[in-house]
Write a structure and sequence with these properties.
This protein is of the alpha+beta class. 23% of the residues lie in helices and 22% in strands. A hairpin with a 5-residue loop joins strand 2 and strand 3. Ferredoxins are iron-sulfur proteins that transfer electrons in a wide variety of metabolic reactions.
């Protein structure tokens, strides 16, 4: 499973980074980005919590 962030809609609240720093971080513009590649198995539940808790619903998780 991979994580994606719609950077145009991100408000940089930091919730995803606080919940799942293994997957999410800030880029040079202080907008959240997801790691390239698959979400580590031990971080999947926290990545789902990040998606579900995002106040602007810009996080998507996809099986690929």
């Amino acid at each position: 499973m991979k994580a994606y962030v719609d950077q145009d809609g991100c408000i940089s609240c930091g919730l995803c980074i606080d919940l799942c720093p293994e997957v999410f971080s800030y880029n040079e513009d202080d907008v959240s980005v997801a790691i390239e590649g698959d979400i580590p198995e031990d971080a999947l539940e926290r990545a789902e919590e990040s998606r579900d808790g995002c106040p602007v619903s810009v996080i998507d998780l996809k099986d690929e």
